[in-house]
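Researcher: We're teaching a course module on how sequence relates to structure. For the next exercise, students receive a sequence and then see the predicted structure as tokens, so they can try to spot secondary structure elements on their own. Here is the exercise chain.
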Amino acid sequence: MTEYDVVVIGSGLGGLSAAALLARAGLHVAVVERNEHPGGYAQVFRRGPYLFDPAIHFTLDAGPRGFTPKMLAHLGVADRVRFVASDHTYRSFFPGLTVDAKRGRDAFLATHQELFPADADGLARLFRMRQDIFAQLAALPQKLGPDGLAAAMETAPLVFRHRMSSVEEVLAEYLRDTRTAAAVASIWPYVGSPPARMSFLLFNQMLESLHEGCYYAVGSFQTLVDALAAAVVENGGDVLLGGAATKILVRDGRAVGVEVAGDTILTARAVVSNADPQHTFGELLGWEHAGGVLRRRIGRYHLSPSAVALYGILRADPAELGLVHENFVFPSWDHGRTWSDLRAGRPGGIWVSVPTLLDPSLAATGEHLSVVTGLVPARADGSWRAVRDATAEEMLRTADGLVPGLRDAFEIVEIATPDTLHRYTNSTGGAIYGWENIPAQTASKRLAHRTPVDGLFLSGQWSEEGTSSLRVLTSGRATAALVAGDLGRPGAVPDLGGPSFLNQLRGDDR
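Model: And here is the predicted structure for the students to work with:
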């Protein structure tokens, strides 16, 4: 039996960031990871001379004053991760039109106004409103007191007006041409919900952050994983690999430790789970401890899609194909049609990443790596092996229809399916974004960091901050602050900023 202050289950970015910050705060921390390597969706894999990031293609708020660099500096490992910015936000290929979304708010707006002149005024009004709602959200306190709701609604009327709005509903108020709206909403595959379903507040925060630039970690995002793991160890903690957590121990209604495969017992004053809540509560804890209210709530949640990802070598100059670092491929202007196809099992929301445009070191000189990702239903039941190759071919044919030459230039090295993603992360169905990012499952409508079981906390994309590498890092910070406060170290975890609106919309939904 080994004694710790905190045991963290899962070494994804949400778990590692929480663990590193708690260790830095002076608490004795252990991270338990069932895989042989840390990182969850952020761990890389190598095939011959090629290094692939399996899931993270870029991150946000990683400029000199951004959240992640500030966190790494606080942890003392800032020199181990170097971020490089992309000149392009993304490029979208639609039938008959290519949209080059350039970095910077003004450049982004101007590009769309030039392509859709009939909606130029509407776009200008939309972008003014988007900027206002972003500022209002940032001005809200992280926590609303018992009498703070009315004041918050007066301070941020746009936020409360649109807290349950979809992207499609808001864009329709400003734009007459459905093609304009389709172009503006191009980023929806990044969060797995089409405009008719996607939370406008989440969309707006993500797009505003994208205006500031998207960043790649030189040497792959494994450098970020390794820096966080090093911060745990160098501050007196342990990262325990190759042993799965099998049980969360409870005494007198409080989490008091974790049992690890092989009958190892790690006692703790608090436990943080970065795992899928269905696994956390249903298998590790037991629903009898979680309570019927939480079980029914989790049962009502919708999973995000999963994905099929093709990792390959691009035997052509990306520029000659018209590719930038991040590229969306939409064979239809109707995102609703794409979503319907996706739900029927056909890959949709396809995007093509070329990481070597930002980091040539990932491949041999003059070669380019590429990842083609298509969203599919979250179904990890062993059935994907039979359709894997046909699905890959369909994705490449679809992309080639709008990016001619891509199919012949793309040499597949590896294919991941929902079964693969489930095997590495134990995420239900291989869901890549946790719960689906609809208004009813965004911010405070996701699961809270503090659970009904004393001493048990949640971190990661299933919790309040939600989806994206940046958000799971901020979830780790938020969880660490709560745990440190409970364990007698209030204020030991600094704020660090970040795009969190985790507690800002509370008041009528719990």
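Model: If you want an answer key for the exercise: The radius of gyration is 22 Å. Residues 305-429 form one domain.
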